[in-house]
Amino acid sequence: xxxxxxxxxxxxxxxxxxxxxxxxxxxxxxxxxxxxxxxxxxxxxxxxxxxxxxxxxxxxxxxxxxxxxxxxxxxxxxxxxxxxxxxxxxxxxxxxxxxxxxxxxxxxxxxxxxxxxxxxxxxxxxxxxxxxxxxxxxxxxxxxxxxxxxxxxxxxxxxxxxxxxxxxxxxxxxxxxxxxxxxxxxxxxxxxxxxxxxxxxxxxxxxxxxxxxxxxxxxxxxxxxxxxxxxxxxxxxxxxxxxxxxxxxxxxxx
Length: 254
Fold this sequence. Notes:
mainly alpha, about 75% helix
């Protein structure tokens, strides 16, 4: 399951969790010479970042911060860009600015948590994930809790991860990664019926991945349902013929 963590962390950091809040700054250290223009340039920078045009994105975001150094969303977005450019000190500096200037900016708190988790700073990361969900207006608290759970699983602290995954699923029962991880945790605890139930819920909301199919094979093998094992193996070979999971199945490693 470590591959799921690695892939997921990168995706959320650069796409799903980019937010654009502009109000409620709590640290007005500078007078903004042109706040409206700063907002426009921040949004342009975000668009260029999402398109992968990093040079122009950097120019727009730097200009936005010159026009309004208090703009938390510009700090958050340029931090994501520096993260892409592997300039981690600059990224962290701007994440800090974003959350200091606007502590209730949940998207920035969440993104900073992802960043810290990538750096192996798990306790600090969880603090920011939990800070994100304190804002009752935050639209993605389940995602932040899933982030925190994924981070806890990297320690690894499976008990804490399970607690956080359950909290996330109570808010949003369709979180596919949380469902898959709960299936895996249930399998590790030898609760194979529970693992099957989570796999079935996962299947109802997401497309099969090679990892999910291998877990389904292992679970059904423990439950001695060889018809299900054969069906899942056939599906795995058809959809992911060159995967590591197929190699494991061929070697009987399930």
